[in-house]
Amino acid sequence: MNTSATDLDASIAAEVTRVVELYDFTDDVRVTPLSRSENIVFFVDDPARETKYVARVNSGRLAYHTGELINCELDWLTAIREDTDVIVPEVIADRDGRRVHTLNVPDSPTPRFVSLYSFISGAEPSEENLPAEFRRLGSITARLHNHAKSWTPPAGFKRLTWTEDMILDDKLGWGHWQNGVGIEGETAVILERAASILRRQCERLPKDRESFGMIHADLRLANILVDGDQIAIIDFDDCGFGWYLSELPAALSFIEDHPDRDTLIHEWIAGYRAVSNLDQAMVDQLPTLFMLRRFALLAWLGYQVDHLEFAREIGPQFTMETRKEAEAYLARFG
């Protein structure tokens, strides 16, 4: 049976409402759509409670959208909230202590899972003061990594790994980068050469405790909420094991060509080093980490073309910019 997107969304919304009934909300609780990107987010408002909540429904398209891996994501998120002063959402369990629920949506092509969090107010950092915001972001990222280095995950903890084989060989479910928007002809040849060199360079990067561990993996502006002096981090959906410094290329996702790029990089590093050590040898590897992020985004935009207008709008230009960066990368490392 063919099911329209509207019907599927209605089925998902009905299931989220059913799951919310498993929590300690009153009968007056309201569930309304809030946002949509990779996942669908609903706003959960109980007039009897001062705190508001959100329910996140995973798309189910990615290799790490399983109940087991989502629960592990929530383990780390909970530990960050309990062990540090980094502001992150609170994970909310139902009356029976369950944090992840399977939605009964027969017409969904993949299993869907939902989890509830406290709602955090705020807005994306203003572009009027990006350098200062990037310094703050570097500082908060360092605090996140300090926790990751000292944290002992619970037994059976599993999350994805953001390494060259996972990204270049599509073990994440994002799609093959070769299927990115407009990758053909000479552009494809140049990117293939760059990918080969990139793989070799990544294999040389250290994976010791000071360089590699649990990261957010998508700490870009869209996942940062600023409210006065408060800065919060949301959306840990992509968190996993990776090089700590790869958070910096992620922060510049889709604004890689910002006219103040060098200043933003400098401020992020300065903010990070004010809190934690950052080895200069790893900083020298930033061109490789930036290129690895670009290949990940090529893949992401390619598979999101069928789902997001954003991908259709920027995909062709992003591919051309990546080709230009790949040519420079080849000139330096090839």
TrEMBL record:
Pfam families: APH. Belongs to the pseudomonas-type ThrB family. GO terms for molecular function: homoserine kinase activity; protein serine/threonine kinase activity. This is Serine/threonine protein kinase. The lineage of its organism: Bacteria, Pseudomonadati, Pseudomonadota, Alphaproteobacteria, Rhodobacterales. SUPFAM superfamilies: Protein kinase-like (PK-like). Signal peptide: none annotated. Residues 33-273 form the Aminoglycoside phosphotransferase domain. Keywords: Kinase, Serine/threonine-protein kinase, Transferase. It comes from the Bacteria. One of its GO terms (biological process) is threonine biosynthetic process. InterPro entries: Aminoglycoside_PTrfase, Kinase-like_dom_sf, Pseudomonas-type_ThrB.
